[in-house]
Amino acid sequence: MCRVKDRSAGGTLAVVAAIMVIMSCSCTDAASPDGGGDADAGGAPEGGVPDGVAPDAAASLNCPAGCLPPAPDGWIGPSAVYDGAPDAKPAACPAQYGVAEIEAHQGLAPAPAVCSCGTAKFADAKCKTVVEYWSTAVCGGFSVTSEGSFPFSQCVGPQAGLAAMRVRPAVYSATCTFESPSKTLPPPDFEKTQMVCGLAATAACTGRPECTSAPAPDAPFSRVCIRKDGEHACPSLDYSVRVISHRGTDDTRDCTPCGDGTAKATCGTTVTGWVGGDCTGTQIPTVVGSCYEGRRYVDLKDTGPVNPTCEPEQGGNQPTGALALKDPVTFCCNQ
Q: In CATH, which of 2.60.20, 2.20.28, 2.60.40, 2.30.30 is domain 120-179+269-302?
């Protein structure tokens, strides 16, 4: 409250004069520096310390520009930190912080193993063909069959007295194995990289021995930080920006075995009929599945396997495991 002294000769101050004096008073209340008021700019937010900062964090030392507190016990720094895209990582440390220290990473994209069974080895591959010989001209009555497999070394021919023939589609069979499976592990794909460079020697700031010389590093190094292995709260309000990164990866990527494969293929469908008993004489083109009167002898040289494949057993040749981040490190930075 403002008070006005009565200085009139009669001991009574005129009302008008009192009002004028009150209007010109300079009052002191609870908003004065001694009475409290709002926190200083850059201090702890209302209700507590910043996120990631320990409740008992050391108060700011208010070091001058180019200076920061030394790292507390158990922490390392101050160091300059590049914090950005891996492909833009600098080739060398900045001049002010010339000692390369560590590299850490954040954000790991999935990178499963690339599995391949390699070239298959086939064994006992054949296309088995059945040739039917019938007692009547329309492939009716009774029949006898002759079987051949590609490669086939002799003609397929009927018994005497049969009137028609038909070639059934060839059936493929084989076994296959994989002798050279391979596994390719793509390199890690990180979202961000932290490249850390330290001071060659520490020095106290002039006039502020409790502060360490920590000049702002050249771009693209954007932060000065202290660090400690593991995940921790930041110990000081001068280093109140926390970044959790990781120094390594845990790689459990693999491929399931290919196992014995399942051989698959189609067979050729071109056969040739002959008049001669040893597949000689007049050559007569023949379509698989059709009935022909008088076709006596057939060669199977064009019924061999087409486009053979070997499919891994169920569950084989599949990626397993994962690439995960490990060895966390906490950076507490000035900005």
A: 2.60.20
User: How far is 34 from 43, CA to CA, in rounded Å?
Assistant: 18
> Which pLDDT does position 294 carry in this prediction?
78
Terminal-to-terminal C-alpha distance of the chain? 44
Provide the residue type at 116 as one letter: S
Domain ranges of the chain: 120-179+269-302
Strands 114-116 and 204-205: unpaired
Identify the helix (H) or strand (E) that includes residue 172: strand 171-178
- Token code pair at residue 263: 């051989």
Place of tokens 């050729």: 268
Examine residue 72 and say whether the peptide bond preceding it is cis (omega within 30 degrees of 0): no
User: What pTM value is reported for the model?
Assistant: 0.65
In three-state form (DSSP H/G/I as H, E/B as E, the rest C), the secondary structure along 188-216 is CCEEEEEEEEECCCCCEECCEEEEEECCC
Q: What's the helix, strand, coil split of the chain in %, to 5? A: 5, 45, 50
242: Cβ contacts below 8 Å, ≥ 6 apart? 51, 52, 53, 233, 234, 330, 331, 332, 333
pLDDT digits (tens, 9 = 90+) for 265-296: 999 888 888 887 788 888 887 888 899 887 77
- The bridge status of strand 120-134 relative to strand 143-150 is antiparallel
Cis geometry, peptide bond prior to residue 209 (ω within 30 degrees of 0): no
